[in-house]
Amino acid sequence: MNEKNCDVVIVGAGAAGLTAASQLKKAGLSVLVLEARDRVGGRLWTDEIDGAMLEIGGQWVSPDQEALLETIEELGLETYPRYREGESVYVGPDGALTRFTGEIFPVGPETEAELVRLIDKLDAMVAEIDPDRPWEHPDAEELDRISFEAWLEQETDDQEARDNIALFIAGAMLTKPAYAFSALQALLMAASAGSFSHLVDADYILDARVVGGLQQVPLLLAERLGDDVLLEQPVTEVHWGAEGGVTVVTDAGLTVHARFAILAHAPVLYPWIEFVPPLPRLKQQLHQHISMGFVIKVHAVYDRPFWREQGLSGTAFSPYEISHEAYDNTNHGDERGTLVGFVSDRNADDLFRVSAAERKERILESLSHYFGDEAKSPLVYFESDWGAEEWTRGAYAASFDLGGLSRYGADLRTPVGPIHFACSDMAGAGYQHVDGAIRMGRLVAGNIVAEARS
């Protein structure tokens, strides 16, 4: 039997796990990172498809993502701004296209007034939320019992205003229908980005990209860790107990004995591991109340960024389109043009009920409603389907069902004996983003170092 010993065994070689491993190693502890996939990066994945470099997973960097920006600088990577010159486009409920500039969509004056009012109200509510402890808000239970859709219905009779406000949380972030998560979960999503206004401002939340792809962050971290990272090692068993320490067994026949373990992967994967003894009942119940969202990230590469010739930025929105948002995703220094579009929740469900050919046709038809018929004929077309990824099973991250955040949120990060938990799904600031994964990796590493020295 192949056996190894270390101070800390880490399950998952994404940004959280590799950050934790790096911090622990700097503190003088021995580590071993076990990754189920044949690559590092988790939900970060930069790959070449039909001769085009595509960001299959996460890719954007915003100004408030301090942990990610610090890591990018420390690794010697460069960023470049997302292309945003020219006008954006909006498709309304009647199918009409309007070109616009600024953050507020080009809607009627009454709807615009409602949008501004709702954004201001949500900003004020978000300011009262601690993203690390949203359950401590005085109205947390009440806000967690009502869906975000129902909350919006209480706030306004303007359907287009409701549709657009919901778009920023439901379609663009949690990738679930607005009736499937609570108002408290929506406030956490906004608080994790600093404000609801930040989510509305695409130029802020989707500010920059890393030259060569964001997966370079985990690739370079793993390179520094060297032989302490092992690929194709799906963990099947975690043994822990009162005597202290932990033993981890992989499907590849490796057994690792350690003082501590960090599970640094999506929490929806915990049921795929046999815990001996089982995790406490509260933890097991908690894990039944979180689930991943569902989104298709669509990449369409053309011989040139033709939309720029029309004076368009490549930024497009509509809660009424199959692809509810799209952006110019042209790579740094590339003469070709790339559009990235997103199809989420119920629209994604519907498209996986038809053939791949029909799915592609419908998505490109939707993009053509923003950018014209030329959008229907890309040189390269690719769909990132993280729901089909065995070791992720959804995107972008996990969120609680109605009532789950106030009921179980405080227990999400709580260690179980020597077992600690870290991933973007349980972050406060940077929730659902690489920044949150790095913050969680740092936090858990610091907790283990303090415990190891006590």
What is the secondary structure topology, with strand pairs?
Blueprint: E1 2-11, H1 15-26, E2 31-34, E3 46-49, E4 52-55, E5 60-61, H2 66-74, E6 79-81, E7 87-91, E8 97-100, H3 109-126, H4 140-145, H5 148-155, H6 159-174, H7 183-191, H8 196-200, H9 202-205, E9 208-210, H10 216-225, E10 229-230, E11 235-240, E12 246-250, E13 254-263, E14 274-276, H11 281-287, E15 290-292, E16 295-302, H12 306-309, E17 312-317, E18 325-328, E19 337-344, H13 345-351, H14 356-371, E20 380-385, E21 398-400, H15 404-408, E22 419-421, H16 434-453
Parallel strand pairs: 1-2, 1-13, 2-10, 7-17, 11-14, 13-22
Antiparallel strand pairs: 3-4, 5-9, 6-9, 7-8, 11-12, 12-13, 15-21, 16-19, 16-20, 17-18, 18-19
Cofactor: FAD
Keywords: Oxidoreductase
Family: Belongs to the flavin monoamine oxidase family.
Question: Could you describe the 3D structure shown?
Answer:
InterPro entries: Amino_oxidase, FAD/NAD-bd_sf, Flavin_amine_oxidase, Flavin_MAO. Keywords: Oxidoreductase. Residues 16-448 form the Amine oxidase domain. It is a single chain. The protein is of the alpha/beta class. It contains 16 helices and 22 strands. The strands form 5 sheets. Strands 1, 2, 10, 11, 12, 13, 14 and 22 form an 8-stranded mixed sheet that branches. Helix 2 (66-74) crosses helix 16, helix 3 crosses helix 7 (183-191) and helix 5 (148-155) packs antiparallel against helix 6. The longest helix has 20 residues, at 434-453. It is globular and about 65 Å long. The mean pLDDT is 97.
